[in-house]
Every structure is written in C-alpha cells, then in structure tokens.
Write a structure and sequence with these properties.
- Strand 44, helix 14 and strand 45 form a beta-alpha-beta unit.
- The chain is α+β, with helices and mostly antiparallel strands.
- It contains 16 helices and 51 strands.
- It has a seven-stranded antiparallel β-sheet, with no helix packed on it. Strands 10-9-33-39-35-36 form a six-stranded antiparallel β-sheet.
Length: about 1050
Amino acid sequence: MKAGKKHISVLQRNGTSQSQRFPESLDPEQLKIDGRTEADLIDYALEFAEQLNFYTLDNLADGDWRPFFEQLKAAPLEALDGQLSPQAGLFLSFLRLFKKQQDQLNGLTKKHLDLFFRDILKIKPKQAEGDQVHLLFELSRKLPPAKIATGSLFKAGKDSDGLELSYQLNEDIIVNHATVESIRSVLVDTANNQLVHKGEAANTADGVEAKLPEENPKWPAFGKRNFAPADLGFAFASPVLWLQEGTRKIVVTLFLRGDESLEIPDDALNNSLKVWLSGEEEWLGPYFTTPSQKEVSGRYQLRFELQLPETEKPVSFFNSSVLTGDFQTVFPVMKVVPDTASFSYLNAFLQGAVLEDVRIEVDVKGIENFDLKNDQGKLDASKAFFPFGAEPVRGASFEVGCEEAFTKKLNSFSLEVDWLDVPSTNMRTHYGSSYGGNQAGLNYYISSNQFKALLSYRNKRDQPTRKTVDLFYSSNNQAQATYDVDNTAFIGRIVPLMPAVLLTGMTENRMLGLAQQKYRLLPGNKRLGRKSIIRDLRVEAPDKGYVSLELLDDFFHRQYRQKYVKATVEHQSGSDLFLPKEPYSPKIKKLRLSYKAVASQANLKEDSESAFLQRDIEFFQLGAFGQREVHAYLQRQTAWTANDETTLLADYSQQGELLVGVKNWAAGQTLQLLIQVAEGSANPEKDKEPVQWSLLMNDAWCPLTTEHLLADGTNGLLRSGIVKVNRPEAKATESVWMPAGLVWLRASVQANPDAVCQLIGVHAQAGIASVVSPQKHPAHLKQPLAAETISKLQRPNPAIKRVMQPYASFGGRAVEADTAYYTRVSERLQHKNRAINLWDYERLVLQEFPDLNQVKCLNHSCPSKNLAPGHVHLIVVPNLQNKNAVNRLQPRVSKDLLDQILNFVGRLSSAFVKLHVSNPFYEEVQLEFEVSFLRDYEFGYYQKELNRELVEFLSPWSIGKQTEFSFGGRIEKSVLLKFVETRHYVDFVSHFKMYHEGGTDQESAVASSPKAILVSHREHLIHRYTRNN
C-alpha cells in the first residue's frame, strides 16, 4: 500500500447532517411495552373468539364467538357511524378505555429517560426565548426631542390562543427630528480599471428611479456596475479664464509628483480629456483634447491646450443660479474630466498623484469691445470715431479700457488699428510742400512716421511706463497700425480684477468657524457667491485700467487754417490761388486688442492665509456628487485633513461607499439608524471587510471613533441591526462635496464590496423591543410577528406622533422540543462538551449552529492538502432554505459565520490543534449534446425545460429540497444520458458529451478530493439536432 493511501478511507465520508443526529433508539415511541393498536386488538379478539365455543344441551360445540366481532372487522371503524350492534359497541368502548392504560404503560420508557436526563443529570430543556422587533418612531412637529424609556410597552394584538401580546423597549431612545432623505452609493469597478459608478438613488434598480421588484426589494449596499459612471476629474477657477471674444487659446500645465513613474502610454492620451468652460447660460463644451507629457528636473508635467474660435460663446464668470455644480467661486471655471474610455488608464497613473503647481496661459486675438474715451468724453467703438478729436492737437489723448485683458497678469498685449479714410498716397505726398520745406518757416517734410504717440500703461511694479509708437505704417498705404508691448517690457496687470475678502462669523442658520471661506466681489459692488453670507458688505472697487495714446504732434489743422486764409487774401491781391491740402483727421474704423496672459499662483502647498488669499488659481476636485476646493490652507483647518497632500484626483481608494443623507440632524444629537439587510446575501467566497463609518465635515470625510460611533449592531453590514451615531459638536461648513442641506454619513469598505449583505431599507429613529413573558405565548414563538402589527404605545406619549414596525420580528425560539432535548443531552453525554474525535466536532457544530445543514470533519487535513498532521478541517454546508443565497447551486456560508464556527470550536478543542473551517469545493459538471424533440414540442421552450430538469437532477438542493450532499462523489455519463432520453418530450439524443470542470469529454466525473462536491453547471450546452452533424 502506498504511503498516504491508508488515510483516504477516513476522508471518504459525507459527514453528519441535521437529520442524522437523532437516533431512533432515543425515540420513546420506537420501543413500546404494549405496542398493539386497536386493529391489532380486534384481530386478537377474533382469533381468541374462535376458541370460545357455544355448546348445546348435549354438550356439543355449536359455533363460536366470532360473529360478535366480525362487524368490527368487516367495515372501517370510522365508517360505522354509530351503526354498531350492542356487543360490538361495548367491546369498542372497552378498547378505547384500555388504550389509556396502554399509554400509561408505554410512557414508562419516556419517564425513565426523563428521570435520568432531567432529574438525575439535572439537564433542563432550553427555555423559550422571546422574539425581538425593530420599531421606528416619529416625533411630533415643533416639539423638542423626547425620551422613550426602557421598558415602555407596545401593543401587538393577541396571539393564536387569544392572549394579549405586548413588547417592551430594550433600552432608552431619545427621538429627534432627524430623517433619512437620500441614499446614494459609489462603487469602484476594479475589473474595469477603477471605473467609478454612482447611484443617485442606491435603493433603486438602476441607481436613479427604476423601482425594485416588490417580491424581492433588496439592493446592493454599494451599488451595481450597471449604474452610471461618475464624471470624476478636476477644475480650475481663475480670472485668466475670463474670455469674452476673439480667437482664444488656453494652455494648462500641471506639475505633478508621484511615488512611482507617472508616465502614461501615449495611446492612452489621445483625446483623453473632456473640458467644459463656464458660459453665460450653460456650460460650454465638451471639448476633447489630447494632453502631452514630459519630465523636467524630476517633476512630471502634463500639458493640454484648447482652441476657441471667434464664433464660440463667451467664457464668463461662474453663476451657480444658471450653471450646474456648486463651485464656491465667482471666477470663470474650467472643468476637466477624463473621457470614460480613457479614464481607466489615466486614473491608474494619476490616482494619488500630488498636484504641486498649476500654470494657465491664454492667448487671445481680436477683442473688439472696449471702454473708450478721449479728452471730449466716451466713445462708441461700434462705429467709426475720431480717437483724438476731429482736429487733434498735440497732447490729445485717447484711452482704451478692456476689463477682460487689463485685469489679468499680462505677458504682452497689442492694439491693432484700422484707420478710416487714410490718404491713398503716403503722408509726404498728401501733405506735399504745403506743410514742408521752407514754407511757413517749416524746415522739414511731412512723412508717415512724422506722427507719433506715447503709449502709456503701468508695468508689473505698478509704475507708469511710456513707449513712443508710430501711429501709421510707412508703407501699404498706412491703412493699419499695430502697437505692441511684449514680455520684455511688460509682465503685469493694469489693474486688479477684484479684491479678496475673508469672511468668518455667523449666518442665518450655520456657523463658519474652522474652515474660513473666501468671497470675491466684482467691480461695481456686484455681489456674488453665497448671498446668505454676504450681507451689507461693501468693498470699493478700483477704477478700470486704461492704456492711453497721447499725440506728440498735431496734424496741422491750425496751420491749415492759417495757410488757407493767407492764400485767399493773396489771391484777392492778384496772386495765383494756391490752396493747401486739407490735413488728415485720424479716424478709426476698427480697433482690435490681442493679449497673452498667465496665472501661476495657485500656492497649493502653502498653508498660510496670505497664500490662500493671493492665489490667482483656485483648484477643485470633481467627485461623484459634487466638487470641493482643495488647498493646504483649507486642509490645515481640520485635524483629519491637516496632513493630507493636494492630489489631482479625489481619493476613491474605498472600493464601496454607502452614503446616507440625514435631514434635521443637529450637532450633539444621537441618530439611531436601522439598517435592514437581506441576511445571507453576502458573497460567502469573499473575505469579510471591516466597514469604516465616517461623517462629512468641511467637505472631507471624518472617520468616526468609538467616541461618536456608539454601536454597530449590523456586524459590518452582515445582519440587520441598529447603528448608533452621535454627531460631533465641531463647527462645520455647508457641504458642496455632497448635495447641500443634509448631513452625510458614509459606510465604506476598502475591498470586496459584495462581502456585505444586500440591503432592504435604511431608517432613522429606530429602537428594539422584546416580547413580554415569552413562556406564556408558546404558539406565538413558532412564527414571527408580522410586519406592521405594532403601531402604538400601550400608554400614549403626546410627543410621539407615530410608531412603526416595518419588518417582521426575529430571534424568537419556543421551548426546546423533546426530540431536540434528547438529541442534545445524549450528544453531550458522549462528547462531554469537548471536541476530540470526528463525531464530537460535527455534532458540536450542528448543535450550536442550527442554520447549518451538514458538517464534515477531516482530521489531519487542511484546505491545501489531504494529509496534514495536527490539523483539523471542518467543511460546512448551510441550510438550503436561504432564499437570499448568492448561488443556490453552490451553497456557502458567510465569512462571518465561518469565523463564529472557528471561534466556537477553538474553545472546545485542544490548544495544539490547528483548526480550519471552510465551505466545500464545488466542481461543475456540464453536458453538451444535440437533441431532437418529439413533434409539437417547441425547441426554444423545451430546451430551457430540459436544462432546468438537468440542473435539478444533478443539484436537487437548488430548488429547496433538503438533501444530503455527497462529498467526493462520482457521476456516470450513462446515467445522465438515460435521464435525458427518458424525458417524455425527447425523441433522441446525439453527440452526448460530459465535461468536468471545463475539461474534455469524460465517461465519469469524479470529485478531485474528499472536500469537493459535484454540482450542475448553470447552463448546459443543448443544441438542436441537425442531420449534417
């Protein structure tokens, strides 16, 4: 015999099921002292009556007593209906009285058993345990929170015996006005490269509004993969993005740092970003752009640009009353979202990347709307105008104001002038000798560059700066001129856009404290931002900035008049008439401004207040349900974000999030939240994940410690229970990361979101009540109290408007039945509450966990190998009545229950034993064949019917049948072929194949180990028979 083979016989067994625990020898009914029935006694009387004869006077036998009893034998006793003869009725009455003596005599077996178990061993049957029920309370309007004390009674009608049924509250509850108004979810799809799905209404079929089926209204706690993907990304708000007109180019450069290389494959960058810009009435976009990347001095740069044509609408200041989103800014906003197709790649590389700096550059050409004025007053740029007046003189000025351009930090700007009615010849020819040479004392000739002006502006040091420029070109007929100020001479802004104001203090209904907020006011005292906060505040806006042109020479209008008068007078004296040419009056047909500006002061890493106020770029993270500004100064205001770095993308490292929005939950109040789960719906193959509870404060999730998370009765969302949370007293701002107006509570898991149960409901103001005197209501304990039975207190409380019982009661247990009692005690006598041999382990576990159907113990074995000295491996199969099972073909118990079993057995076994508890290994058997059905049997329907019957034949427990599982089983292909052929609708079968665990065709399917169970595949490959095959 090979080494190890001698142990296999110990492993090749099915273990013990609940139905096998009670031995027949313990049943008092199995061995009766007098086990004769009424029918047996009648038969006995008939046989005995044959021995009782009648005798004649001659002492001769003349018949017997049989006729007296034949009536009882001839017809069923229940059919005689009182038509018995007197002697038969008398005998039947005797039998009925005799049965009482029989019962007393037969009861000696049970009495002897009870004497030993109950009186000598002193082991008592388990007493009844009362059921419990979750109750919800609603406080009357306008009343302060009210207390319902422990022991308060609630009416529950009458039980089946007609007795009044009452429940009493287990512990005090203070009922307040908090209610659950919104339930949302976030699910990170790790199978699809971290794509984030959001549920606007998690308790719906599609995450939005589709209703759940009434017969099974459960829903995943963290959403589904068919929910809509979330538009995660980032955004910038900056004055430099105020782009009203012209051709506009925007270039954004992100300076990033990561723990690892951030280089992204080039094919993942093609049109990978979607960009929106804030418009006057709607978001402009989306515009698709392809970012570029490079590494400079150890810093990773991601750069993208955007081109807006002249026809595109203006990019305007953000207005929350018109545009979606609640950006806490008044500056123009640029939203950037990775395209869904590319998000997986970008997210994988950029998740966790730290944003160190941002630079936004704009290049605008062709602005035509200005604020114009000269020495005579304001000018209208929509039509031709005289910039220096109709008869310009030396020193005449023309001022150009452009709030869009001159409020920005400019690298350069240029004014392009299209002059109207410029002489068709050059200026020297136009003016000719009339104004030059030696005439009129002038010793120079007029030329195009004769006419100059001083271009005045303020430089980056806010100092007046002047530059001499030519008003006209000396060629091309002088039709146009451009006045440039490049970055060698100018880097600065003409005038600030608006002052920054830092506000703290009270508002109507909330306090601004730890997180101070910044508000900006546009010129003209136009108030934007949160109107409820900005009241009666006035900030004097600075004057608009202008660029001015000041003439250095006139255009000879005064000389013209003098020469004209002189020529006229001389002509009257007889001289030839020689009139001077009329001078040119500069008139602008069209004025255009082009400029380049930059914003580069995000100051993201500086946590001072001054750095926060002086920044010219505001950075926002875009989340599944909102957005939030991120800055080191804001993070420093709260302890739970003080050490956080500014990452480009919001942190969605939690794979699943359940978000509960609570209304009217005041600081300092305790919320008792009932979470009803579909118990048993957790994926048993996944490891149990700890659930982290957090509260949204100042747009960041604050983990709740035991100081505020007072109780979690759900055991990490694995069973129905009450979560008790006390809201911290800390001051907090109104949320923009989640919808405003609610207090948001989050339950999240790092991984395995399906390792928790699916949910049925989430309710506020919940308490637990237990039935009063359960021993008086044995009939009630056999079934739960129906939902909506309890609706009021026994003694009304005026502060409580309503009492609700949304779900049936749970946890009740009647007095232990005799069969269960005898089984428990007899097993206790054998294992002595110690786990030593296989028998002990299996029965101890089945007794402690009645929801298990079968347990198999493998000694000297572990999950990875059959022979492992010192190890004990328990394989457990759940009760098959679990309607919420994830996979009914392969029933498994939850990780939570496996842990409970391990802890229980660990207390009863040797300290030297290494215990393992697991689910069975299931191995699928799949059939593939061609079949022809009899005439009049539709293939489409009966194909599904045959598949269903095959599944039920191979896995009968899938339809709820209580059956014993066969570990290490074997299935012959011939048996399955015969089963298919004997279906009444099957004509014949061809090409019949059987696959075991997806392998090749097998004649027999044999389980690979004693831990394995053969089960049916969910879908067998059933094809229509075709003659060609």
